[in-house]
Amino acid sequence: MSIAVTQVPEKEINVVFAEHHPLIGRLLWTRGITDAAGARRFLTPDYTRDTFDPSLLPGMSAAIERIVRAVAQGEQIAVWADYDCDGIPAAVILTDAFRKIGYDRLITYIPHRVREGFGLNAEGIEQLHEKGVRLMITVDCGTADVENVAVANRLGIDVIITDHHLPGPTLPDAVAIVNPKLPESTYPDDRLCGSGVAFKLACALIRAYGVTEGWEKWMLDMAGLGTVADMVPLLGENRALAHFGLVVMRKSRRPGLQALLRLVRVDQRRLTEDDLSFSVVPRINAASRMGRPEDAFQLLATNDPVAAQPLARHLDAINNERKGSVAAIVKEVKKRLSKRAHSTRAIVIGDPEWKPSLLGLVAQSVSQEYRCPAFVWGREESTVVKGSVRSFGAINIVEVMHATENVFLEAGGHAFSGGFSIEPHRVHLLEPALDGVLAAYPVAEALERTVDAYLSIDEVSLDVYRRLSTLAPFGHSNPKPEFLFSDVLVTGMRPFGKAKEHLELSLAQRSGSIPAIAFFKTPEQFSVAPTPGTRRTIVGSMEYSTYGTGGLRLRIIDVL
Ligand SMILES: [Mn+2]
């Protein structure tokens, strides 16, 4: 890995951000904030100032009008939610809002990740029709579902779409499409996630029923959860939703959230975005990957502390099962690759026994290990082979898939990660076809890592840590600050953890010393292995641990 420190115009920054610590000024600048007013807005989120009126979203008034009519006529309403940790909190938000206005003819439908896949499907709509549904509200999906909305319409079901996915050339024939990414949208910020859009609908709905202004803030925990989980940029309105979402979550009375946090030993009052990303989101997503997404919805939506306990334990158990399955597949991949010749341009490997819903995590690990794009396929209750791909370096893997002719049934995704399907009898064609396309690409190099600033160990202090914390919550477009510490003396090194799987270093420089840790690392896994008595360059971030003796420490990203 090569490392560069972001270049910034120091003098200009010191003038513009004169009222802030120079390090904070530099960090603001690298996050695209270039004036004093922007800095104040960023550092002191304000709910009223930073969130926009829901009625500014396209389709909002038509959506509310239709819901009010459904409620007046006692129609059966269904929420159709995506199965991930954006769709599920979004469904919880609408459930809360309908409970608040005292309407209980509401059911939730969450499709099965593998059997049904993303978005609407005709069989699911049929089922809702049989249950007497007359109005369907989608959350976190639906914008592209032209045909299935037509299916619903033919069955006499009106559809309201709430979503944040990009629209295609044709829009579905829905009663309303509430989506800030519609071309005609004049909403001031189009970066909301599905839970964010659902939160807006919920705000407008309870307002229409005269619920006391301010009550909507109790739903911010779910909007914040979806915003962090969906990895939308944590800037603008999303920053407010994530920030106040965490504030509300720390006080949330949801029995399911409380039970889950207790189980994973996270102190609710000190909950951070890292706790969400590492402890909460994987357990919510485990439901759709390993079992039924409804279990995750039930956990977050229930009012019953007794029902919450077993649901939390169940999600924790299937999350452990998921980790075990992913590790077993990665091990099997390595074993097989050691025994056969394979392309060095891309790894292609699969097994009809592997669950496709786990293979993104497997492909991620394989691409890093073999330092090239990894295509990993499996099959589950389907006649076609389904897989995930993760790129390596700067190769745009979706472009590569689109350039590979006559192999894929479907292929899509983002630049560095995607999914694909293939007919089983054609899967053997994949490796040679990719090899041909990738021959035209330069050999993949690990991407350069840019860190925010040089720092020395004696500059690491609680005061600096507290200042850095004013930039939180960290995530997409506002990453946790990373620093380069050069010429640091390694004064100690010890493995720790149940199976000694983690590593702690003691570091010293000038008058300062600090512990530094890395989880699931051995010294050999860094670019240069640290040993006591040597001087090394450390790349890391600052964190404060509340466990045991705890305190301020560095989290090591790499040692050079
Ligand atoms: Mn989403």
E-strand count: 18
Span between termini: 9 Å
Q: Report the C-alpha radius of gyration, rounded.
A: 25 Å
Overall pLDDT confidence: 94
* Estimated share of beta-strand residues: 15-25%
Q: Ligands bound here?
A: manganese (II) ion
Spans of 5+ residues with little confidence (pLDDT < 50)? none
- Morphology: globular
Number of helices: 19
- Sheet/helix structural class: alpha/beta
- Output the strand order for the largest sheet: 3-2-4-5-6
**Biggest sheet statistics:** 5 strands, parallel
Approximately how much helix is present in the residues? 25-40%
Notable characteristics:
560 residues, alpha/beta, 5-stranded parallel beta sheet, 5-stranded mixed beta sheet, 19 helices, 18 strands, globular, binds manganese (II) ion
Descriptive account of the structure:
It is a single chain. The protein is α/β, with parallel strands linked by helices and 560 residues long. It has 19 helices and 18 strands. It has a five-stranded parallel sheet with strand order 3-2-4-5-6, with helices on both faces. It has a five-stranded mixed sheet with strand order 7-8-9-11-10, sandwiched between helices. Helix 1 packs across helix 2 (22-30), helix 6 (87-100) packs antiparallel against helix 10 and helix 12 crosses helix 15 (305-339). The longest helix has 35 residues, at 305-339. The chain is globular, with a radius of gyration of 25 Å. The termini are close together. The mean pLDDT is 94. The structure holds manganese (II) ion.
